[in-house]
Amino acid sequence: MVRLLVRTAIALLANAIGLIVAAALLDGLRLDVSGFVVAVVVFTVVFAFVQPFLVSQLRRSDAAAKLLGGVALLATLASLVVTTLVTDGLSISGGGTWIAATVIVWLAAVLATFLLPLLGLKKFLEERSG
Q1: Mapping DSSP to helix (H, G, I), strand (E, B) and coil, where does residue 29 land?
Q2: Cβ neighbour number for residue 25 with a 10 Å cutoff
Q3: Pair 113, 30: CB distance under 8 Å
């Protein structure tokens, strides 16, 4: 149970960092402070469901199996689309911004996912819960 909570906290923080970095770098991406937490939660939940679904669908097709490396990018794009549609915390305008936001959010979240445990987040959360 503790591992699930730690992994969830890391995913939420990593995705928050990814969205903040993208908002800082891209003029066409706007984060609303009042809806930011909801946007991060929606983004993280959608990503958690979309990525395994895409993997299972692509593994069924031999030709599509070559796309497995891009699943995280596709899941990031889908999560951005859903988050933009169902929350007021995130808005993206312009095709180039959508593409850049997908790459930036994905890359920043991946880096944060690897770096946050190294910075002691995992140990801190385990000490607090147990």
Answers
A1: strand
A2: 12
A3: no
- 9 in Cβ contact with 129 (< 8 Å): no
Q: Show the tokens assigned to 65.
A: 């199996």
In total, how many domains does the chain have? 1
Give helix 95-118 / helix 2-25 axis angle, nearest 10°. 140
Q: What is the pLDDT along the chain (130 residues), one digit of tens a residue?
A: 677 888 898 999 999 999 999 999 999 999 999 999 999 999 999 999 999 998 888 777 766 666 767 899 999 999 999 999 999 999 999 999 999 999 999 999 999 988 888 777 656 666 766 6
Indicate the residue type of 102: T
Cα 128 from Cα 130, distance rounded (Å): 6
Domain extent for 107: 2-129
Distance of alpha carbon 29 from alpha carbon 80, whole angstroms: 11
CA distance 107 to 112: 9
